Amino acid sequence: MARVVKVFGTLRNHWKKSTVAACALSYGGHWLYGKHCDNLLRKEACLVAREYGRQQISPQEQLRKATVILNPAACSGKANTLFEKNAAPILHLAGVEVTLVKTDYEGQAKKLMELMEQTDMLIVAGGDGTLQEVITGLLRRADQESFSKTPIGFIPLGSHNSLSESLHILSDNQVKHITSATLSILQGETVPLDVLQIKGEKDQPVFALIGLRWGAFRDVAATIKKYWYLGPLKTKAAHWFSTLRQWPQVREASVSYLAPTLRPPDLPEQKPQRPHLMYRIAHRLKNYWYPPIPEPPKAEEPERWNERMLSTLELSIHTQNKNPVQTRTDDSLLVCVEPDSFSVGEFITVGEKKMEDATAFTRKSLKLEASACQLNLPEEGAGFYNIDNEEYEAMSVEVTLLPRKLHFFCSAERREQLLTQVQ
């Protein structure tokens, strides 16, 4: 008992050191417990992957080949370590023949995709910027019609992973997020995603899976990092300071758009059976003696463009990939125009919501569905775009929807969640 009293007496006499030691021990224990939980998640994912690797294949079959485009600079330079610890072991245990290609500088993924050979699957390990570069390089290829049929997997390793919530189970734990995304590639289920082709007057087209943003909310979001010292108040502060510099922050533009097109039914690809030999001979003789009369060409209806002049705080054009399993009758992109009548308080509130979800819109927003649109901006002072969270100089562009152009691996659990949201 005397020893216990002596210990408590020492702690009381040196309470400052005791407090620091207690905080350090609790933090260290919490850190070690987090590492232990991460190792358990990795072990569980590797056991699942090992079952895929134990599946038998015939002697004529080859191992599945996957080409991984990895951006080591993603996630503040941690992407390479995250991939090697959480994703690479799963792919190897599943018996996938992996070819790893690391990018060295911004824009290299586009060039690599133009030179890449055919593969069984393409895996993008990075963030929104890496993914946008890969699909742009892929769809600029001369053989993009055949190459775009290659299934694509996305391993979220970047600071922004906007597409991940449409494909994978959401989790605050980074290890669980990466391992579940990698396992979804092994499951083999895919969903078709729309792509936006964004083309200016001079440059080559850029392709996007999320969309394009232009306006005041985008400009403020680019400056929020400067107010890091304000902690949780930095978003509100950035929007408020921007109103002090200029208010109202109204943009003038004009938009021309085409009506949405009907979506053809999803029919499985089936090769028609070859007719009998005697039928083919009779058919050829009939065409030889009585050649068919060609039908006159049908006059094509001119495209009917609708034009609107806009005064807005922000304009966004985005796909409907947020829920790729939703059944739709039309193939369309969404043009969202925010009103120019927001008060300062509404501007700050809406800005906070758009930081959480850039595709969110308000009740006052004007929403247009179109199959293609032309965005005409003033020649000077247009500022910058965000295309899939990557910054581009703003200019007049034509945006065309490429419906269900690419196929991405999607986890079965996330598919079920999205289907329940539709119902």
Low-confidence segments: none
Helix content range of the residues, please? 25-40%
Structural class: alpha+beta
Major beta sheet, strand line-up: 6-5-18-15-8-10
Radius of gyration: 27 Å
**Average pLDDT number:** 86
Textual characterization of the structure:
It is a single chain. The chain has helices at residues 2-13, 15-53, 74-77, 79-86, 88-93, 108-115, 128-139, 144-147, 164-167, 174-187, 216-221, 234-245, 277-289, 344-356, 412-422; strands at residues 65-70, 97-102, 121-126, 152-156, 190-199, 206-208, 211-215, 251-258, 261-262, 306-312, 314-318, 330-331, 333-337, 366-370, 372-376, 384-387, 390-393, 397-409. The chain has 423 residues and is of the alpha+beta class. The strands form 4 sheets. The chain has a 6-stranded antiparallel β-sheet. Strands 14-13-11-7-16-17 form a 6-stranded antiparallel β-sheet. A hairpin with a 2-residue loop joins β16 (384-387) and β17 (390-393).
